[in-house]
Fold each of these.
Amino acid sequence: MSDLEIKNLHVEIEGKEILKGVNLEASKGEVAALMGPNGAGKSSLGYALMGHPNYKVTAGKITFKGEDITKLPPNERAKKGLFLSFQYPSEVPGVSMANFLRTAINSRRDKKPTSTGVDGAQSQQRNSANGGMRNRAQPDLRLGNPMPVGEFIKQLREKMKMLKIDESFMHRYLNEGFSGGEKKRAEILQMAMLKPEMAVLDETDSGLDVDSLKVVAEGINRLLNPETGVLLITHYQRILDYVKPNRVYIMMAGKIAKSGGAELVQQIENKGYESIKVKAQ
Ligand SMILES: Nc1ncnc2c1ncn2[C@@H]1O[C@H](COP(=O)(O)OP(=O)(O)O)[C@@H](O)[C@H]1O
Ligand SMILES: [Mg+2]
């Protein structure tokens, strides 16, 4: 069983059916790539995964770590470890990047630590479901108190250095006046700080020059670990030259037209999307 399972998902926007029975799986520790031409429905799938209210699920099911999340509100999904980076990130004047990140991190840590309460019991269940493999040295982000400021700044500095983001960005308003490349790096920084279990990255490569692309790809590769997986949404194959996918899905007209391994990327590069026919209904 995969950590994220999408089964026969049908999604409507303003009464129009956009996703027409999508099946897709992604797991922690792996990269699943979702490719497809413009307008195929890739971003819509990302929004539906995060529970955006305009994207109405009319049939099908999304399960994450074995739990049906199809009807959960976005904040509950985020707390469970799902993360979505947007194709077109918004500018948030008045909120500094540091403040935004700290708030986001702490909202995932807002349950009180207890050894006997509901949280403790859930945590124990989770541990035994994992075969007790959760690394004890890594604090569980869903438990505990707000991250101390010193620890937060230390981590933020470290990750910014890794992603070659200037320290001055800490105090700048989120995405305001950021160049395309800076916005994309800022998204990877969010992912590095939030440590999601499944990150959905929508067109993280679009508009990047080759140097920025390499920095972003390296950032993604470093963040991959047994507890973090990535669903990489992309129109172009070029980021997949740097981030190797374990599985590849090709979406066309709201359906997965083909799925397979990394070799599919080459096929798209050589022959284009037209070489893949949408399966008969
Ligand atoms: N908010 C919306 N309202 C109406 N139609 C939308 C909306 N968002 C997306 N669509 C339509 O859904 C289809 C899929 O779009 P999208 O998911 O953005 O595709 P992709 O990310 O693969 O380019 C397109 O036909 C698009 O016009
Ligand atoms: Mg899109």
Note: Residues 42-43, 87, 203 surround magnesium ion (ligand 2) (CB under 6 Å).
Amino acid sequence: MIRNPMVILLIAKDQNDVIAQATLEYSKEDVSKTAHVGVLGIVVHPSYQNLGLGTQMFLVLEDIAKEVGLLKLEIACIEKNQRALHVYEKKLNYFREGCRRKNIKLKDGTFSDLILLGKFLAPL
Ligand SMILES: CC(C)(COP(=O)(O)OP(=O)(O)OC[C@H]1O[C@@H](n2cnc3c(N)ncnc32)[C@H](O)[C@@H]1OP(=O)(O)O)[C@@H](O)C(=O)NCCC(=O)NCCS
């Protein structure tokens, strides 16, 4: 859990419609032992997926993360979400660093692992 969280919200619009949003969450408390880590989240409207938008929004958030002094970014992704994993691992060079087994219960009653991914923004 992030203590005293700061959230940066990035919105993409087509005319007046919001078509995607991405978040960067991190701790405002320098004393926190994980204050150097930011956590990402994203959703792109289905009609606008596979157009490069998600990748571009993450790159913008990565730049902002560097500007505010973060050294590492993390994101969690359902194992069945192959498109998201492709974006994170193949396009943005995130590495797998963990797996929460059967952490997600899907609507059909089956369970999915939650893959934990990370990326360093500077040498540590
Ligand atoms: C996952 C998500 C954020 C990606 O954003 P996006 O704008 O669609 O992604 P991009 O267009 O930048 O890139 C999509 C890539 O996935 C690939 N892809 C599409 N479907 C795929 C699949 N089933 N398996 C593997 N790769 C797939 C595309 O070919 C493309 O890669 P390429 O450029 O190398 O060809 C977006 O699809 C989304 O919001 N999905 C629903 C919500 C969600 O899953 N959020 C993330 C939760 S962790």
Note: The mean pLDDT is 95.
